Amino acid sequence: MSSPSPMTSLRPCALLLLLTACATTPSVSPTSTDEIVLAEDVRIRRIAPGVWMHMTNAGKEWGFTPANGLLVEDGDTSILVDTGWNPRHAETLITWARDSLRHPVRAALVTHFHMDRTGGIPTLDAQGIAVHAREDTARRATAQGNPVPHQRLSDAQDFGPLSVFFPGAGHAPDNLIVYHPASGILYGGCFIKDAAAKDLGNLEDADTAAWPASLERARAHYPDTRVIVPGHHAPGGPELLVHTEALLREAPPAASR
């Protein structure tokens, strides 16, 4: 029997090398559930079909604090919920949505007037992307000197594939929550604390006296919530409402307004 030619014996090796390379090359598909790093301080992760959680880190002036938001697909476009801490964060998210996800941002909304929600508005304005918020949010952003959203939301309305609702004062007097009915995801923003939180965080504009009743209205308005995305740190389930209520019971009386 003749021995195989050198070319024949090399073919299985070449095939094995090719398969190994394919298996070890990390996927960069925008449908991956893995976290995608867009910049040193901007990351994004799919948490349900058509729903992405973005995470941006503040600069030194805000203690490098991480903040969450959403990017929600709406047909061939998408909606940005909260804008990141600064215009560059918003620019990074908008560019990714357009060039990688292929769902360019058509509109945005912000959940209250603080900078971790409104900081990217100048980029959206410059690109002609309308930013929506409650009238109270626009008024408070103006008074604070923060970027101002120019389109208005009512206290309860549908917004594309989303539902928005003002449950009452809590972390801020104007805090809005956002629900994605198709997935059961509730974006609580800073109104709801993450499971690892040991306290209520920034209470400068909080109303801890009104907050418990506001949480109950949120629970009643969206009873089918399965996942909650807080304004900072890791998502959880409806237990985050219970955890926030427990933190409120422990809050010092001086924090009440």
UniProtKB/TrEMBL annotation:
Keywords on record: Antibiotic resistance, Hydrolase, Metal-binding, Periplasm, Signal, Zinc
Compartment(s): Periplasm
The Metallo-beta-lactamase domain, residue ranges: 66-232
PROSITE patterns the UniProt entry points to: BETA_LACTAMASE_B_2 (PS00744)
UniProt cofactor(s): Zn(2+)
Subunit structure: Monomer.
Protein name: beta-lactamase
Source species taxonomy: Bacteria, Pseudomonadati, Myxococcota, Myxococcia, Myxococcales
